[in-house]
Amino acid sequence: MNNKILLSHGSGGRLSHELVENKFLPALHNPLLERLDDATVLDFQGRLAFTTDSYVVTPIFFPGGDIGKLSVCGTVNDLAMTGAKPLYLSLSFIIEEGLAEEELQRIVGSIRKTADEAGVMIVTGDTKVVSHGSADLLFVNTSGIGIVPEETHISGSNAQVGDKIILSGTIGDHGIAVMSQREGLRFSSPIKSDCAPLNGLVKKMLMASPNIHCLRDPTRGGLATTLKEIAIQSNVGLRIAEETIPLLPEVQAACDMLGLDPLHVANEGKLVAMVAAEQAERVLKAMRGHKYGKNAAIIGEVVAERPGRVTMKTRFGSTRIVDMLVGDILPRIC
Amino acid sequence: MNNKILLSHGSGGRLSHELVENKFLPALHNPLLERLDDATVLDFQGRLAFTTDSYVVTPIFFPGGDIGKLSVCGTVNDLAMTGAKPLYLSLSFIIEEGLAEEELQRIVGSIRKTADEAGVMIVTGDTKVVSHGSADLLFVNTSGIGIVPEETHISGSNAQVGDKIILSGTIGDHGIAVMSQREGLRFSSPIKSDCAPLNGLVKKMLMASPNIHCLRDPTRGGLATTLKEIAIQSNVGLRIAEETIPLLPEVQAACDMLGLDPLHVANEGKLVAMVAAEQAERVLKAMRGHKYGKNAAIIGEVVAERPGRVTMKTRFGSTRIVDMLVGDILPRIC
User: How far is CA A115 from the centre of its chain?
Assistant: First the structure.
């Protein structure tokens, strides 16, 4: 049970084959993956969404998830943010020699479980092993393919003046959960990562209204960076109100203690949507009926003034500019 | 000019945006990539090939290529080995803090140049930065999408008894080139990696004959491992003759000196094909007319005896079993 991953597991030779056949295939098995060709052939017709992300989070296990769950959620969510139905994922490991096989096995199990929840299949993969000290335990890349319905035209450049800005729930949970685990911080109420596949929530939203103009998940850089990106891409102003932004008291407390702005802390199971004003309540209601949107709230609106700017009315009634993250307050958060 | 990559370049914040806008987009620009959404939306109809590979080669620059060229060729070739026309690539960097920006820029340039040669577009990407010591300069993941013609059914499990085995050129060049660079070995004739996109060669082969049953590029684990995989997947025996296998004298000399079997040394611009006997000469001729197939040769045939086994008639007239690589003679070759 204390077997370690060796360089030979990445050689392409016998041990690589044994790793794939004895560890990966039983956990991930499906008819497409089992063909074991250099690439997997699939039938596809329509508008295809394609995305990639590498995951370098440390530690690889954290409250509410692990690097495996994260690597499925992150890529599924990037697809869902175009309105796509995620279908297929690739999975590529870069493993540091010495990683416990049992830990790798747990992560593969977590990948399968999350893929099942999201309704996606792992159809192709790759494994590399580097010597001890040349990586940090495990890096994972997932790329993903989804299908975008004909009538859907969701984009970061499609926010419209008058749209309401809806946030799906509390911010900062993922960043603070990983940070706490990494630094050995303990809070009276333990903070869990919000890491979750959001494609089911997006499906409900799109059923409630076709007039969703923009969807994005505020991961690295947090809500502030995501809003700023949208303001620039759509060439509009965004106005939000601090008191409307859902935030767990324990996350607020941790941010106060650590000197972090929760607007800059990463989320992995949240989305922000720009929705035509007259449909906003309808979409909000649909979101609140879904387990990953229970705490959804309208946090602001899209305006014509000051294109490219995000401003926030603070709890104290003043207004401040919200900007992108500068520097890196929490490296390796995803 | 001596700027280094910092952790903040991977934060998702301002420096990440500057890196993408000032360094990556100018080199890689195309209308699909420039949308900068979480996923890229493409029109697609037909049979889709999907593959992924992470590249951890060290050193990142070597005679005949670099990690950028390799990461495009490797993924293009995995697609081409299904008979697909490669179309779109994703590109994901894991960068060790401290990498020279100039080196990253050269690699991005090399990616663009190779993508142009292969006729593929980089349509989506991701950048992560980890602290010094948590990775080794640069790891690259490329995933790829291609379209497979309706009539094409090429697979590692499709080798047929009677097929001829064609190899597209000399073996071991990539492995020995990287090894020499890494270990500071010098040979009288410098050995260059064969790193090349093979989709053009495959296209010529498919035009010469539709009866190509199996294609594979013998990368990690070398020709021996690839043949063994095909023998198992197709449940056939393979018989090859050592004297027919193209091998540069300097690669042979290096292998002798280092105690390596060239059959186990990695290639990055070679393919092996199983072709119906009556079409083999025709396919061979087509290959020899292409710059990446000039030294192509028929090296053996597919037989019914001993399914799952690969045997080789040696230069000395004896017969030996050819098996997968065991252990890892050349780690981080790709």
Answer: 13
